Structures are given as C-alpha cells and as structure tokens.
Amino acid sequence: MGVYDERVIQDAITALMPDIDDDKHDDSIKQAFKVLLGLEPSSFMGIHAKQSNTHLPNDLKEAFESYKGRLSDKSYQFRAFIASLYDLDLLDVNNITYEWQWLAKICHFLVYFATINTNDNRIESICRMARLWHHPSHAQHELWGVCHQKLQARTLTETHQNFTHYLNHLTTNKAHKSVISQFHIPYRMIAFAHNQQKKIHRKFHGKQTKESTLKPRTVPVTIEDDDSDTLVEIKRYETTAHDIDINREKLDNTPIDFILIKQDSLRVHESYSAAQMHQRMQAKFHHTNQNEMFLSTSLRYLSIYSIQALFAKLWQYFLDPSVTKLSLNVCDIQRSVALLLLSLYTGRTIFELLTDIEQKSCGIVEYRRGGAICRLIVRLDITPSRIKTGHVHKVLANQSTVMHLPLPSQLIKAVDASSADYLDDVIRLLKQELNMPVLSKGRIQTALYGFMSRNVCTSQIASIITGRNLHKRADLWYCSVSQEQVFTYYQDAIKTMAQGKPNGIGTSHLNNSVITNQDYIGSQNCPNYALATKFFDYLRQEVIGAKSFIDKFNAYNLWLWHIFLLLTSMRAVDDAPGLLNQFNLDANIAWISDKEGRNSSDSQRLVPICDFLLQAIQDYLAYLKQCQRLYGKLSFDLQTNIHQILNSQRPLLNLMDEHFAIKSLSPGVVRQNIHQHFRFKEDWTRHLGQKYLHESSAQQSLILSVFGHEMSEQESWHKHSSMSVNDIMGLKEHYQGLACLLKLEQIHGK
C-alpha cells in the first residue's frame, strides 16, 4: 500500500465529485470528507490527512435535501453519502464512536479506489451502502452494526481477517442469501484494497488464426425499443434415431451458435462486441421461448386427452408398481413416479421439487410429519419496494402475496434423494404404453400450465399457480386475485385431469380442503377502493376550495393527472399524459406513449376514452380558455403557454409558480405535492385499474394490450396481431364502470 499525501487526496476528491450545475454545497462536502479522513490514523492505509477542522459543517442537512430526486445519478452518490451523515450522533473528536471510526475507514477506501481509477460502480455501491445502511429503518442496519462494532480493526490486515471469518460464518450457518449477498459489498471493498488489486485491462492480441466452421450472418436491425428486438438464429440440429429434433424433444433452450446484429441503438464500442451481443440475444431467445405465443397447436404442451391418460397411468404405477414390469425395486419405481406426479400437480421442474423437499426449505412444498399439512406454496415475489408506513396493510386491496393449495400427502412421503435415479426408465415405459413419443420431463412440467391457460382460466392465474414466467410477465406485478378463485380454478383443473379415475383417486385431498378466504393476493402497491375514493374526493375538494388562481390551477392539474392515469392505465412518466393532439375526442380514443423507447414507432398504443374522462378533458380545456381570457393580461408568458397547450406545443398538464411560469407534470413533481397525504407509488392507478378490469371480466388480451404488456411481436396492431380498434374500444364501458365504482365527480369549472 502506497503513501497518500495531500495532493493525492485532492486528486481523489476531484474524481469522487464530478462537476455538476448545483455545486453550492461542494465546499461543505469536501470539508466534511477531510474531517472524516483525519479521524483514522495513517497506519491503516497510508493516507495522511491533515486535521484542520474538528467538526462537521452545519449545512449538511440542507445539502442532502437539495440532492433528493437525483440520488440515482452517479455524480451525486458521493455527495449524498457525506451529506446524509447529518442525522448521526454528534461527532466528538475526543471520544470517537465505533460508527464514526468505520465511516472514516470507508472514506480511506474511497480515496484508494479513486486513486487507482477502479470501476465507478464499486465506488457507487460503497457510497450507497454507507448512505443507506446507517439509517435505523434500513433492512441492513443490523449488518451495519456488526461491521463497525465487531469486525473493524486497527489495521487493514486484521479487518480483512475479521470480515473473511464472518463471511465463512454466514456461509457455514446457511444465512439467508440476501444477507450474504449484501455482506459481499463491504467484504469486497476490504478484500480489493487488502490484496492491492488493480483495474483489469484487457488487450487484444490479434486475430485468431483458427477459422470457424460457421459462417456468420449479418442482419441489419434498427430498433430503439430493446424489448422488441427481432431474433435471428443459426442453429445446429442433432436428430434422434427416429428423426425427431432432439432440442424440441427435450424442450431445451439451446444456445445460439452465432449471431451478428447491427443495431443503431448500441454505442460504438458495443456495436463491435460480438460476445456481448451474442449473450444478449441468447437471453432474448430464452425469454421468447419461455413466453410462447399460446397457440393451441403448440407442441410444447400435451393435449387434454394426453394429460388425462398420463395422469391415470402415473397413479396406476404409483399404487401398483408391479404393473410396470420393470426390473427395478418396487420402492424405486414408486419414488420416481411420485416425483413425476408432483411435477404434474405443481407445474414445477423435477430439480426444483427435489431440491426443495430434500432441503426442507418450504419454498415450493410445505410438508409436516404425519401428513397433517401437505400443500403447494403459491408465492408472488412481485413487489420489490413496499410501503413502510405503519398500518398500511389495513388499506391494501391485497392482504398477502402467499397462499397455499393442497397436495396428496402420500406423494411427498415417497420422495427422497434417489427419486430421480430412474425417471428416464419410467418415462420410456410411458412413451411405449401411451403411444406418446414426444413425452418428456419438460412436457410433464408444463402440462398443468398449458391445460389451465387453455381450458380453465387465464394464463395469468395459471402463471400464479405454476410459477411459470413469474418474473417475466409484466402483468403479474399488477395482479390482484381472490384466493378462493385461485383454489377453485386449481381444483377444477385437477379434477378434469383426473376425469375417469374411480373412487376419487388423485383428488380426495381436494375434497377435504375448502378455501373460503375472501382475501386477495397480489400487488402490495394497490390501495382498496374505499381509500381511492377518499383520495380522489380529497383532490377534488382541493380544487374547489382553492383561494387563488395559481392554487386552483395546480390542484386542478394534479386531480386531472390522476384521473388520466386511472382511466387510461398509462404509466406515470414525465410529461404524461402527453399533448392534446394525442386525444381524439370525436372518436373517443387516445394515443399513449409511456415506455422507455418513447420515440420509437413501436412503443405507442391506443386506449379508449370513457365518458367520464371525455367530460373531464372538455371541462379542463374550457377552464384553460377561461384562464387565458381572464388572466392572460397579467402575464404575457402565461397567455403564450396556454396558447401552446391548446395547440399541442406543450404537454397538456402543468404546474404554475408564483411568477406564472408553468412546468410540465412529472412523477417527482407530483410526489412533492401529495406524498405527505398519499404514500403509494405513482403507478398505483395501474395496479388498481388492472384489479378492476379482471374483476369486471374484461378479456385478458385487451387488458394486456391497454397496459402495454403483450409479448414481443404480439403488440396490438402489430403485423402478427389480429386485434382491431373496435376490440380495444370494448374496454370503454369497463373504465366508465371504474369511475362509477369510485364515485368520481367532475370539477365542472368550479
């Protein structure tokens, strides 16, 4: 470890604090950083920092408040970390606490990383960790306490040893994966510095002489929306003895041999990285393969008659293994058949089931000795950041993200570590006896999902039960489903699969389990209808009770912003809902563009305008014209801005300051104005809207369309879509019904 003098420290501070427009607090940030550096002796990492001040600046809180809304910007990560220390206990240089010592060490590490020009992501992750973890309400605050109270030491070597031992302790005691993952942030920071690792520089040593047996194919693609890339593949096919495609037989997502794609949206250095594009397109290929087009002729799924025959044959093998006439132990046959039946009942892979049952992790199946409890765990891990306000669960539309479905206890009793040893033998026998050459473990796994999505319920509920595409289907993040409804659909599916079996074989466990729970599972960002009604009434009363023209203008726009989001299901994005010419008030249809690639010709969609929204828009336009006539003489800029709004040169909704200057609405601006009264995330209207649309029996294809959740190349009015404008207009009455349910009232120019 080298010696770092004042000049090196100053260079490091310059690297940690890139130039920004609002730099009035930079001197205070630098002063606080130098104070922290001086708390730790130079013997730790060789950093000599002169201690010119012994206290932190008084304006750190003001600096942190000014950084809010820009905390995701890399230029503000270091500044926000230093400024966030205002809420800690007062610093006493004569009696330094363990926490301040740990923060001083982190500052030394930042100087080291900035000096060796390491990856910016490492510095960013360290600053984010130190800014968030020291807050008592953070999930990793306990881990933060372990770091500064037990693991830090006087020397870097001792500190590295302590962190290494604790990491081994977490691994040995099988701590939760999230805890180990988070602990790697400080551990890697210390290990990197202790081992004096440098930034990796890769060099190209010339073209390889070995020629590829494959001829690369160049495909020009010009797409801005990365979610709709066209897949182009070159694959080798290996055939079986019966001339059957082995990849389709095994349902494997085989890697593409080679792809070269020309895409203008990539940066210059990325466009020449064949390895990066190859990896990215592999992920696209896998995603598309998982999200198939739900065609009734898809070979990925077994027909209903094949499933019923398979169900009956597997139970026959399980109850009487001797009928298989396999030269295997009876218990071995029964174990393998039980595992296949569990895969058929749950829609999970053999590997997932075996791992979960062996480790008793209760991630998929919960079983207690004696069979008193034997059930499938339906878990929706779909809300990454939940509202932390106390008692918020009382106003949520969905009380949980977990529910349970019954399973036959005798199947789980029979499963053990050797259950997968003879699966191939059993499947080979099934192919012969059922005359089903395409049967495979993959098709058994997907049988329940395919059967339910085609014959019993929507593909959304089928995905919830089987866990298929759980993290790939965008609509699952907004779902709200009755537990009783999920159980009913699952019960109907299993009973239909078991049709023809005597004495309730394979279904008796369902008769003993009845779910009468009226609770819903789904999104934890969806308020109930009663709260939404009160919120919209509050916004309306703010408009009616406004005393000044500016207050009324702002309250009116905030009310209409939420009306638009609710009754069009658009995302809360900057400048929403767009320009006036995006709304055809004669045809009652709106052109919405709210995805990341909003300038792309493929990123927009059409949504209907219900009667309530139509009246609200017309009243608002009349209000703008009235404002222009009555208050236009007060400010020429105001008159010009309203003229631009009415002529589709400015966004439709805006806020006005005391100087009559207007600024278009954005999620951040809306949050500042209402967050103290309503703490749900800005897109809560989409969650509530999808809940109502499903409850009002709207078609799933229309819901996917209006939310922009269709799969690649299946978007509304895409060349592969058969949807017409008249189809989407069918949702108009549903949105009007939502307005009636929430008892929404117009402003009527009051």
Taking Cα atoms only, what radius of gyration do you get, to the nearest Å? 31 Å
Main beta-sheet strand count, sense and barrel state: 3 strands, antiparallel
The proportion of residues forming helix, as a percent range, comes to 40-55%
* Structure annotation, total helices: 30
Beta-strand percentage range: 5-15%
What is the spatial order of strands in the main beta sheet?
3-4-5
Average residue pLDDT: 78
Q: How many structural domains? A: 3
Which parts are unreliable, with pLDDT below 50 for 5 consecutive residues or more? Answer: 200-262, 597-602
What's the shape?
flat
Which SSEs are present, and which pair or pack?
Elements: H1 6-16, H2 26-39, H3 60-67, H4 74-83, H5 98-115, H6 120-133, H7 141-151, H8 156-172, H9 177-194, E1 218-221, H10 246-250, E2 260-263, H11 268-271, H12 274-290, H13 304-319, H14 330-346, H15 350-359, E3 365-367, E4 374-379, E5 402-406, H16 409-414, H17 423-434, H18 441-455, H19 459-466, E6 480-482, H20 483-497, H21 508-511, E7 520-522, H22 529-544, H23 549-568, E8 583-584, E9 589-592, E10 605-608, H24 611-631, H25 636-646, E11 654-656, E12 662-664, H26 667-674, H27 684-695, H28 700-707, H29 725-728, H30 732-741
Parallel strand pairs: 1-2
Antiparallel strand pairs: 3-4, 4-5, 6-7, 8-9, 9-10, 11-12
